[in-house]
Amino acid sequence: MVEARELEVADTPYVLVVTGMSGAGKSSAADVLEDIGYTVIDNLPPALLTRAVDYNAVAEEQKRLAVVVDVRGGGALPALREVIQELSQSGVRTAVLFLDADDQAIMRRYEENRRPHPLGLPTVEESLSEERRMLDGLKEAADVVIDTTDLNIHQLRNRITQDFSGGAMARPMRVSVGSFGFKHGSPRDADLMFDVRFLPNPHWVPELRDQRGTDPAVAEYVLESDDARHFVDKVDELVAFLIPRYEAEGKSYVSIGIGCTGGHHRSVAIAEELARRLAGRGIEAAVRHRDIQR
Questions:
Q1: What domains can be seen in the chain, in order of their start residue?
Q2: Is the entire prediction scored with pTM above 0.85?
Q3: CA dist 250 to 8, 83, 143, 191, 202, Å?
């Protein structure tokens, strides 16, 4: 989102819009946001968003507002993007969090909870298809997308806390560098994804097999090859090139996935080294190792 002017509520987003698919964890995200100091309004019609922001501004102690807006608002949902744009142009700090999950995971959650989908179509599958149509464009416009397909409630809480406590969205572009194993599936929310299975595999070195990419011996083994050093150089340069261009488009968060076979050795070592390089450029880079304990 483009900021028209600086607000007195520096270092915190003035309003965080939480949206996304029903069953993807919006209620859980709202609970976490409330725990870390946000004023949370659930199921707010888009037309009332500006009024809620104005009301919240009166209470000076309440500097952070999160509103959950989704298909429960019905036909008014398409107006959300226009309202967000108007807020941003008027100088209000805005950020959008989109919660998503694949349809099979959402349908399984509905079966377990035995709750109806808010759209109430004959089947959950039909409701999900219509919901995705109604949300079309919002995911692409979001500042942060979290895919909860493979996240439990504790992992989601950690992710929300890390990304939004302390007003993180008001900071410069933040980068998440995550390692993963292709045999466990590709991450669904990566903006950039790189395959490092071309590098020598410590798995075939007996003394390194049971160690991980965070261990010095494994990291040294992975990074000693010319290919590894050249690869990190090029990705480092690419990310440094992209970040100011992403920021110019209003993007404030980018997720990078580094994958190897199992997510234990090569991807972990490369992710750690890339994050270190980015930090040297002054780019805030958080590291996550999805499959390191598998």
A1: 15-170 (3.40.50.300), 174-289 (no CATH)
A2: no
A3: 20, 16, 8, 15, 40
